[in-house]
Amino acid sequence: MSTMRNGERFVAILMLLGCGCGATRVSLAPSIPTPSQPVAGGGKVAVARQADGLPDTIGRATITVFAIPTSSVQFGDPDTAERIMRGLRATLRKAGYQPIDPADLPLGPVLTCRIKEMSFKNYTWFMPAIITWGTIRLTLALSDPTGAVRWQRDYEGHYSDTEVGEGFDEAVNTVMGRILARAAEDFTSSEFSAACCGLEAAAISLGGAQAAEPAPE
User: Does the model's pTM come out above 0.85?
Assistant: First the structure.
């Protein structure tokens, strides 16, 4: 009887995971946080178009009591690297800044994002309760056109929870939302403001001075 129940559970898990074929698709749509004390008139911040280092596969679904990996976990949207930066732009707005394209401030610093780790896994043997866990690690930096880093922070978020049904979407978006919440608070710091907007003002001033210089005869 026990063998039959385990066999039925195994078949049910295979059906839930699509028989282990193809990939589990995740859509990135984290909630955008509002910091506790937004900056008043924070100025303009140039933001890179897309994040760097986004892996093709961010995890594995598993089957059996031994957690044997089956289908890969991937983002379903080809523009996910751009979505990450759109999330950062929205977070900057909530923090009181005006995000702009780097081309609009060619001499100023640019906010970039580098993904260092994005890894998730689940355990399905207790289905319909599925245990999902994982980690996201990334670095945000403000760098000027010479490559000098004016501001940099490392962020790391973890997830471990039990969901009924597929839990990868919830896991990824929860962790990314937590990271954005911490970044939102950091964006309101005097260090970030000086790095982004002190240099922004200098870049605008320098750009205007260069434009005002007469052309050599």
Answer: no
